[in-house]
């Protein structure tokens, strides 16, 4: 069926307009933007000492102590939003969907990426995803309006890896001990006394949504001093007190910096290596 091209263009542009207007401003947890998320105009990722802001003037700015970063796109358009492509590029588009800016990265494989405002105040792009717990089929992803603190116990004392603590992230070389956990709103990932990893939904009486297989060795001999560690090849392992490996995620990927993120949709995902950082811009 032939549609006059003027009308088609109008339809397409109003569809785009509708699409961009109705996009939820769903940055994942406050410090991470994954492929598929939208950081709307006037919103930000933030950690204690830094903020990565998609400003209403269309400039993308990292505010931190010392050297920051900006896209230098102030005044380019209005109602700009930030997304992360499935090739790992940060992309700014305006309210009409017109391209404004993207981060310069070499061609990387298609997949799921994550832009992380790290505890050190720099933004890193990690990916593609090398491992993940299964996607849960639930409506819970829609509970984006919940008060983060009351919902997930995120404000409990969470002693994640020393030196790179963020309640929902574990970076390469980071360690998760028994009794500490990573958490994002409703979901928490922890190392159990039985030397397993367990992902639970805290708002539902700690329903277990995923669990690593527990070997007979680990439950009998490993004791209570196991820990999980993310290495520089993107592998998350459970180790006993003698560094004996009890379990590990998939085969090693290329060397680099990786990040394990517990996300608000109930998935724990490992992204990496780091392919871009504001520190190098
Ligand atoms: C923005 O402008 C500053 C000053 O000219 C420059 O140092 C910086 O590299 C620019 N940022 C980008 C992303 O190009
Ligand atoms: C949690 O457990 C309590 C007591 O066992 C029960 O009354 C409540 O309905 C449970 N809540 C959910 C969300 O399963």
Automatic annotation (TrEMBL):
Keyword Signal set for record: yes
Domain of life: Eukaryota
Any one GO BP annotation for this protein: response to other organism
PROSITE patterns: BULB_LECTIN
UniProtKB keywords: Signal
Signal peptide: 1-27
Protein's recorded name: Mannose-specific lectin 2
Organism: Platanthera zijinensis
Lineage: Eukaryota, Viridiplantae, Streptophyta, Embryophyta, Tracheophyta
Encoding gene (name): LECCVA2
